[in-house]
């Protein structure tokens, strides 16, 4: 092992000689005692120190308590990466409540679904973002939501708007109160993150305080973060990548984040230069765009020591290009999912570029946060036959199953779905296919589920099929994930019209546009007669054949 890597890990081990279970807000208090004056959140307009975040979190917790929000209540957070988002999270946790992370790409109908599904007591939403006016859309879709009088949201007690044009007004509008003493426990839910499922309806995954803290420490320890690591990213804090790898892991070493509101390659590289960021994060599509930008314009990226690109399939050439373009020796990719909180497999600093290009890395080494019987690894794996569920020999290719302290509690108010997620013995079925090579690195071979990732976001074909078939001219719809050099994966749709249906591609896209987040919009839409659908002997449509047909169509168009 490289001496500097060992030294960095030892520094973390010295600071955390044993694992102490605590809540996330208690961890903030502990960390800020050492790093109160250090920056935690940095933007061009504002810097929040650890001490600032601690004070604002306490103020917010008191305000939430005065509003009647307490232990186990859910608080919806529809916020982009504003500086206030960080103390909001810690304030929610300090009040004993659960943060419901809402995707800002969702349409208002999708936001409505999340609020109902999670039973939020309170919603905090930004007023506007880009061209969207969330305040007006929420008022129109959910009248009375601000006063807790929304008929379709009986559990919602109140709502607040954060206006970035007048940020000081938000805290001023909160009532004053006292944060409760010891309101939550380490194994209570801290966050509910919604993820697409094979049923088509997003499900809320409950992640505990201890899940997230172990994930944070494990990420920092495995990647051997240097003291004061400074991460720059536009990844949203409502996703595990931004929240855990970006924010929480950096806190382990007294680090900081430079969060951008939206992805813009020039803005990210400029922020890296201006704020001397050391760690650049993104999904592969972002990484590719930033490399293209860096080749067109000169930036001082000499502070940059590491790049982490993950959360979607990546063309192998990208990894070598990262090294050449950014001059970083530490290049990371990783594997994880919401149900297991965050990253559980990751490449190591100093791994040869071939390992980064061909695998997702090895099981994360977590030190005191890991399993003693697994030499401090964060979890253990086994593979099973995806059809029969039978255990397979070590090293065999099959469906990956994992267990360990980062296993989530399952799905909120979905006991049947949670029961399907877990196997006897505490194993979680990931739905992914792969095998561990003799060198201990994971090689993914595919997905046993139909879900695919576009722009780093999970997409459920079934959800889209259910939506499209509500169009009066559509009889059947079949969505399939397809490889895409820029987006990792993208969707294609095979559409069967009704007998009298006259819908064409433009009509369907226009109809879908206001109903879907952009990453869910299929790249290709083709129409097919019902009689031409490939089927099994029992009449089941063969999606694998539809995918082959789609690949052939794309290849023909490229000629």
The portion of residues forming beta strands comes to 15-25%
Largest sheet: 7 strands, mixed
Strand order of the largest sheet: 8-5-3-4-9-10-21
Number of helices: 17
Terminal-residue CA separation: 49 Å
CATH topology of the largest domain: Rossmann fold
Task: Look at the helices and sheets and give the structural class.
Answer: alpha/beta
Low-confidence stretches: none
Q: Tell me the number of strands.
A: 29
Mean pLDDT score: 92
Helix content: 25-40%
CATH architecture of the largest domain: 3-Layer(aba) Sandwich
CATH class bucket of the largest domain: Alpha Beta
The outline comes out as: globular
Protein name: Acetoacetyl-CoA synthetase
Domain AMP-binding enzyme C-terminal: 463-540
InterPro entries: AMP-bd_C, AMP-bd_C_sf, AMP-binding_CS, AMP-dep_synth/lig_dom, ANL_N_sf
Domain AMP-dependent synthetase/ligase: 35-412
């Amino acid at each position: 092992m490289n001496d500097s890597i060992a030294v960095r890990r030892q520094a973390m081990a010295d600071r955390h000689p044993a694992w102490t279970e605590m809540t996330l807000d208690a961890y903030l208090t502990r960390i800020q005692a050492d790093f109160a004056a250090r920056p935690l959140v940095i933007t061009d307009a504002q810097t929040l120190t650890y001490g600032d975040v601690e004070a604002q979190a306490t103020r917010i917790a008191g305000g939430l308590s005065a509003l009647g929000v307490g232990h186990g209540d859910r608080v919806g957070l529809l916020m982009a990466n504003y500086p206030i988002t960080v103390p909001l999270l810690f304030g929610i946790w300090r009040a004993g409540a659960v943060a419901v992370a809402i995707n800002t790409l969702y349409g208002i109908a999708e936001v409505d679904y999340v609020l109902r599904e999670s039973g939020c007591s309170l919603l905090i939403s930004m007023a506007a973002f880009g061209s969207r006016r969330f305040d007006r859309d929420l008022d129109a879709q959910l009248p009375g939501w601000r006063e807790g009088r929304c008929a379709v949201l009986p559990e919602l007690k109140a709502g607040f708007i954060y206006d970035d044009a007048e940020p000081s007004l938000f805290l001023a509008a909160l009532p004053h109160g006292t944060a409760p003493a010891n309101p939550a426990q380490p194994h209570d839910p801290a966050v509910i993150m919604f993820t697409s499922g094979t049923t088509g309806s997003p499900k809320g995954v409950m992640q505990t305080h201890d899940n997230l803290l172990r994930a944070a420490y494990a990420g920092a320890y495995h990647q051997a973060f240097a003291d004061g690591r400074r991460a720059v990213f536009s990844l949203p804090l409502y996703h595990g990548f931004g929240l855990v790898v970006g924010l929480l892991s950096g806190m382990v070493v007294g680090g900081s984040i430079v969060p951008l509101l939206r992805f813009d390659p020039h803005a990210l590289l400029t922020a890296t230069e201006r704020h001397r960021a050391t760690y650049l994060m993104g999904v592969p599509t972002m990484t590719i765009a930033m490399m293209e930008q860096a080749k067109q314009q000169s930036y001082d990226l000499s502070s940059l020591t590491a790049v982490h690109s993950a959360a979607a399939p990546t063309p192998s050439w990208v990894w070598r290009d990262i090294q050449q373009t950014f001059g970083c020796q530490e290049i990371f990719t990783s594997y994880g999912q919401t149900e297991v909180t965050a990253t559980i497999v990751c490449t190591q600093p100093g791994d040869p570029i071939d390992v980064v290009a061909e695998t997702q890395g090895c099981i994360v080494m977590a030190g005191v946060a890991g399993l003693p019987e697994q030499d401090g690894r964060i979890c253990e794996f086994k593979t099973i036959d995806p059809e029969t569920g039978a255990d397979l020999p070590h090293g065999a290719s099959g469906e990956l199953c994992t267990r360990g302290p980062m296993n989530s509690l399952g799905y909120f108010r979905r006991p049947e779905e949670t029961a399907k997620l877990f196997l006897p013995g505490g194993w979680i079925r990931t739905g992914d296919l792969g095998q561990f090579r003799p060198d201990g690195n994971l090689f993914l071979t595919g997905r046993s589920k139909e879900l695919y990732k576009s722009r780093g976001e999970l997409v459920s074909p079934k959800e889209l099929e259910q939506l499209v078939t509500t169009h009066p001219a559509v009889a059947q719809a079949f969505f399939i994930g397809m490889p895409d050099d820029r987006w990792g994966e993208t969707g294609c749709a095979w559409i069967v019209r009704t007998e009298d249906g006259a819908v064409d591609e433009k009509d369907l896209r226009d109809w879908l546009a206001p109903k879907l987040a952009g990453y869910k919009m299929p790249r290709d839409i083709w129409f097919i007669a019902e009689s031409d659908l490939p089927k099994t002997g029992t009449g089941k449509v063969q999606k694998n054949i539809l995918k082959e047909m789609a690949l052939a169509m794309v290849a023909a168009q490229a000629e």
